[in-house]
Amino acid sequence: MIGSSLQTPIAATLPTLRCRVLIVDDDPVVRVLLRDLLNAADYHVAEADSAKAAERYIYDESWDLVLLDRRLPDSDGLLLLQMVKAHCDCPVIVLTVLDEEHDRLLGLGLGAADYVCKPFSLVELCTRIRRVLKSRPDAVQATTIHRGLFRLCTLTRRLIACDKTHHLTPAETRLIALFMSHPGAVLGREELTRQVCRRAWSYNDRSVDVLVARLRRRIEINPRRPEWIVTVHGEGYVFDQSMV
After folding, report:
1. Mind listing the pLDDT tens digit of every residue in the chain (244 residues)?
2. Which secondary-structure segment (H or E) carries 77?
3. Within 13 A of 81's CA, how many CA atoms are on the CB side?
4. Sheet holding 186-188, edge to edge
5. CB-based contact 69:34 (threshold 8 Å)
6. Residues whose CB is less than 8 angstroms from the CB of residue 96 and which lie 6 or more positions away in sequence, other chains included
7. pTM above 0.85?
8. How far apart, in whole angstroms, are the C-alpha atoms of residue 150 and residue 242?
9. Are strands 92-96 and 236-239 parallel, antiparallel or unpaired?
């Protein structure tokens, strides 16, 4: 079960690729234990003790995994889970004392990659983290795309744009990779939704527009007057090769 000390061999069982993990738990003891475990595996770790604090991390940064407590002081963790799945597109492991079957089914039904009941062993948690990270569809292919001032590594999801480095979410990575692979081509929302969001497009679906807005905030000097990802009214978007 959760203990007071960390054994390095446990952390060594985690995947070696440096991942970015957000811990959301209001218990400082749990946060310290999880942070030490992940730091020992050379992961980049951030912590939040409430849903409000977590939201800032989720909106502003990209993550490979979120470890989420179900009981937060300002919200049900499942509400935050829904927000993560809508905006962050990364796996979530729910950590909770609520171990009834209907609680577990509810969490999994809302998109949790796994549901771990407290107290848990660090060995078990490492096993579950390893399974979740290795099952990501974006974790198995590594491609580097270079277009002028832009260089993207799909494995690490790092975009270098105009000498600035950006850490992207999986969906942002798929979107900019698609743009960079088709410079000068107008890509419609239907095609972008299918390839980036991996579902069929509907008239009221604004997922692609949200992702484009997020990319623009990262790479454009003035996101309201974009020079790189340009809107073609009535058609879609184009990565403007003339600017590269």
Report:
1. 554 444 456 776 776 666 889 999 999 999 999 999 998 888 889 999 999 999 988 877 778 899 999 999 999 999 999 888 877 668 999 998 887 888 889 989 988 999 999 988 888 899 899 888 877 655 545 578 888 889 998 877 889 988 889 988 878 888 999 999 999 999 998 999 888 887 777 778 888 898 999 999 999 999 999 999 999 998 999 998 665 5
2. helix 77-87
3. 26
4. 186-188, 236-239, 229-232
5. no
6. 69, 70, 71, 77, 103, 107, 115, 116, 117, 118
7. no
8. 13
9. unpaired
Residue 168 tokens, joined: 């992207």
Half-sphere exposure of 63 (CA within 13 A, CB side): 28
Cα separation, 35 vs 58, in Å, equals 18
Question: How many other CB atoms are there within 10 angstroms of residue 75's CB atom?
Answer: 15
**Are 55 and 72 spatial neighbours (Cβ–Cβ below 8 Å)?**
no
Q: What is the pLDDT of residue 90?
A: 81
Q: Which amino acid is at 130?
A: R
At a CB cut-off of 8 Å and minimum separation 6, what does 194 contact? Answer: 200, 201
